[in-house]
Design brief:
heterodimer; A: 307 residues; mainly alpha; MetI-like fold; 12 helices; 75% helix; globular; B: 531 residues; alpha+beta; nine-stranded mixed sheet; 20% strand; cell membrane (chain A); membrane (chain A); transmembrane helix (chain A)
Chain lengths: 307, 531
């Protein structure tokens, strides 16, 4: 097990290197630069800026310099948010994204599994249809619709919750963005659970368990659930990486000071270093969660145990 | 024991008294919706209005705008101008202090202006101060920073020498690039001088807290020379990129002011409370330059015909719900030293008459129905409103001339990079917002030597000569006359088709007092209060 983890972590280094290299050059192929704004800069100013940020040097030189600095944890200054380095921007924003994303993940995971299980147990009943219709809506209605609708109802009409902002970080501020963030994922988890649960309930070992006269609760929770959770767990990795690194849409709608918006802002504004920083961040999250999921898999399914 | 009980009672009594008294002691806090996160608080790097609102609360320049948008003395109490108009001597206020209590000195201004022009600083707006002697040379590494024409005569007297008389220099000094920085703090903290806890300002407020993308809080600066007249204890700026979300938060009572809400909300907001909706014409023009280097746009008749065929009323009323105004000049109306701009000669005609004349002109030029086919590509930066404008204009040109019009959009950075690097095009979208309230700021866009801004590469020696003459003219009335002549040429030749005059949109809650609408869009928090 220990060796497995070590091996996986070692293989993350070349992966990250390739990700960094590809994004570095892809970003530079996009026309325009960080200083081409609606307000045009005079050539002399542009020259000064390019020099100050070393953008006047040959590309391969910039690339090597970036790699060298990145290894020491220096991801450079932001071209757009000039008062901050990339490390500062991500360092300040990430805790907000992770906290909100973590709650959303819990809600999506537990909510989805419970709802999906209920639907599977009552297959083809009215309850099943209801849950699955809601889940389908959850997947298809984007959160830029859910978010504003939630605020209109709970903040503007009912004045129960704040319309946005992080405030003091209490649940009152978190609840609406958390729901907006969790809903589509909750729906995915519900559909996955329902599908594999129905399949699982028709397998031989469940029939045997039932024949032994085990109480229905034990059959469902200890025996059927274990197999049914495998697809759920594999979806967990990309889902957790996406939720914990923040959503540009939800963060913008609710003014959450997280890192989600930096993906979009960085790309639109050609803030090369910001884009690189966010790409590395997501890559790390994906690598770590894939590892976590592989370990969880081993726990659920003895056939893929890592010795 | 009884003693303790007594104490407890006293404490309770005191507590209830304090709670009872709290409305009178409550902090006056203004919740100010700002339409985005400031990219920087460094005066040498800021470029946009949402940053200006914050930095102008934190720092005060030599001159400032009052609530109605009029230039008034700021840190400078008074100034004298030499007879030839090239030497300005400013007397700083004796009680002008930094937020750490130390006096603001002329040396601070010298240091700040040198820093802005120093090429190593790479200040985005260094050109704002180019009228200062040697500023351009310093910024282009052709002179040493010490040669900049800014001198401290004594601690409270500042002398600025200009390259040539610049009638709008006092306006320029109110720009955020001309704000002073605290020399001692900068030398101690380096680039970190902008951070909370380190920022030392001389404005009415000081920086308390900044959580990027959440809020930025400033508190009253007790060392400010006019602190006695500052009524707010705190101002909290909220960076709200999502315009619809800003309106929802305003309606939920979380914000007292909102800047730039989306125009499709205006009717609804007006119906709810018309008094709170403020629409003021801005010093900004939305225009379509034609590429005068390429056929058929090198033909003045084609350009005029195309410009005439655009129904500007439709664009302003139907697309922007009246949050923009139709415009027939490059310089927006409302400039005090310029008066009514020189409009295109077709401005006063009806849209039908314009279309008839446009058709005639186009025939004369040999294009459109019965002539050579007219194919036009409109380029614009990706944005739903710009797309609707381009679609409408394309439709107008199709109907009027049977033109084949295609649309092409790029994200903002690519769009402007293409135009600024001299890329060829037919028609493109562009916008310009005044840096200072002077027509020169707009007309300069069409000077032939202005390679970056003159997207259409319009080249007219007569126009260039008038602009040159305007720089040398010292009499304001004469100068305005020359600039009017220059603008008339632009409006005759239509290298650009001016379409709309932007407006600034504000939601101002009833409890906010001291608000003044003005075309300069200057709203220092020091003039505001909440009830």
């Amino acid at each position: 097990m220990f060796h497995f983890v070590l091996r996986r972590l070692a293989s993350a280094v070349p992966t990250l290197f390739i990700v960094v290299t590809i994004s570095f050059f892809l970003m530079r192929f996009a026309p325009g630069g960080p200083f081409n704004l609606e307000r045009p800069l005079p050539p002399a100013t542009m020259e000064n800026l390019m020099k100050a940020y070393h953008l006047d040097q040959p590309l391969w030189n910039q690339y090597l310099q970036y790699l060298k600095n990145a290894v020491t944890g220096d991801f450079g200054p932001s071209y757009i948010y000039k008062d901050n380095t990339i490390a500062e921007l991500i360092g300040k924003g990430l805790p907000y994204s992770v906290e909100l994303g973590f709650y959303a993940l819990l809600l999506a995971l537990f909510g989805g599994v419970i709802v999906g299980t209920i639907a599977a147990l009552r297959q083809n009943s009215f309850l099943d249809f209801l849950i699955m219709s809601v889940a389908t809506i959850g997947v298809t209605v984007p959160n830029f619709v859910v978010g504003p609708v939630l605020t209109l109802i709970f903040a503007v009409l009912l004045s129960l919750l704040p319309a946005g902002g992080w405030g003091d970080g209490s649940w009152r501020f978190l609840i609406l963005p958390m729901i907006a963030l969790a809903l589509p994922q909750l729906a995915v988890f519900a559909r996955l659970t329902r599908g594999s649960m129905i399949e699982g309930l028709h397998t031989d070992h469940i029939r045997t368990a039932r024949a032994y006269g085990l109480p229905p609760r034990t059959v469902v929770i200890t025996h059927a659930m274990r197999g049914a959770l495998l697809p759920v767990v594999s979806y967990l990795a990309p889902c957790a990486a996406a939720l914990l690194t923040g959503s540009a849409v939800v963060e913008t709608i609710f003014t959450i000071p997280g890192v989600g918006r930096y993906f979009v802002l960085g790309a639109i504004n050609r803030d090369y270093t910001l884009v690189m920083g966010t790409v590395v961040l997501v890559a790390i999250f994906v690598i770590v969660f894939n590892l976590v999921v592989d370990i969880l898999y081993g726990l659920l399914d003895p056939r893929v145990r890592h010795d | 024991m009884s003693f303790m009980k007594l104490n407890l009672r006293a404490a309770l009594l005191l507590g209830s008294l304090m709670i009872g008294a709290s409305p009178a002691l409550a902090e006056a806090v203004l919740h100010r919706g700002n339409s985005g996160e400031p990219q920087t608080l460094d005066q040498s790097q800021t470029s946009i209005d949402i940053e200006a609102f914050i930095v102008k609360d934190l720092y005060e320049g030599l001159t400032i705008y009052d609530a109605m948008g009029k230039i008034v003395p700021g840190t400078a109490e008074s100034w004298k101008v030499s007879d030839d108009g090239t030497v300005y001597t400013f007397k700083l206020r004796d009680n002008a202090n930094w937020s750490d209590g130390t006096p603001v000195t002329a040396e601070d201004f010298v240091f700040s202006m040198r820093r802005v022009e120093d090429p190593k600083t790479a200040a985005g707006y260094a050109n704002i101060l180019y009228p200062i002697k040697n500023a351009e040379a310093v910024n282009k590494s052709k002179a040493k920073v010490e040669e900049l024409g800014v001198k401290a005569i004594d601690a409270k007297t500042l002398e600025i020498t200009l390259e040539r008389p610049t009638p709008f220099f006092i306006e320029l000094l109110s720009h955020q690039t001309a704000l002073p920085i605290n020399k001692a703090s900068f030398e101690k903290n380096g680039a970190d001088f902008v951070k909370p806890g380190k920022l030392v300002g001389n404005g009415a407020f000081k920086l308390l807290e900044h959580v990027p993308n959440d809020h930025l809080t400033v508190a009253k600066n007790e060392h400010y020379w006019d602190a006695a007249n500052v009524k707010l204890d705190k101002v909290i700026f909220y960076p709200l990129e999502d315009q619809a979300a800003a309106v929802r938060r305003y309606e939920a009572g979380e914000l007292d002011l909102v800047y730039n809400f989306s125009s499709d909300q205006i009717e609804r907001m007006r119906a709810a409370n018309a008094k709170q909706v403020h629409v003021t014409p801005a010093m900004a023009t939305y225009y379509y330059p034609f590429d005068t280097r390429t056929e058929p746009f090198n033909d003045v008749r084609v350009r005029r015909a195309l410009s005439m065929a655009v129904d500007r009323d439709f664009l302003a009323k139907d697309i922007y719900n009246g949050t923009k105004l139709p415009v027939y000049s490059l310089v927006p109306p409302g400039m005090e030293n310029y008066g009514e701009p020189s409009k295109a000669d077709f401005a006063d005609k009806s849209q039908l008459d314009r279309e008839d004349e446009a058709l005639k002109l186009m025939k004369e030029a040999g294009y459109g129905e019965g002539g050579k086919p007219l194919t036009i590509e409109i380029r614009y930066n990706t944005n739903p409103n710009h797309e609707r404008v381009a679609t409408a204009v394309a439709d107008m040109w199709k109907k009027a001339f049977g033109a084949k019009v295609t649309l092409m959009n790029l994200d903002i950075s690519s769009h402007y990079a293409y135009l600024q690097e001299g890329g060829k095009f037919n028609v493109a979208r562009a916008g310009w917002t005044a840096d200072y309230a002077d027509p020169e700021n707009f007309l300069n866009l069409n000077v032939s030597t202005n390679k970056t801004f003159n997207y259409g590469h319009y080249s007219n020696p007569e126009f260039d000569a008038l602009m040159k003459k305007s720089y040398e003219e010292r009499n304001p009335a004469e100068r305005a006359k020359i600039l009017h002549q220059a603008e008339a040429l632009i409006m005759r030749d239509q290298p650009i088709a001016p379409l709309m005059n932007d407006a600034n949109l504000w939601l101002v809650a009833d409890k906010v007092k001291g608000w003044g609408d003005n075309a300069n869009n200057e709203h220092l928090s020091k003039y505001l209060s909440v009830e």
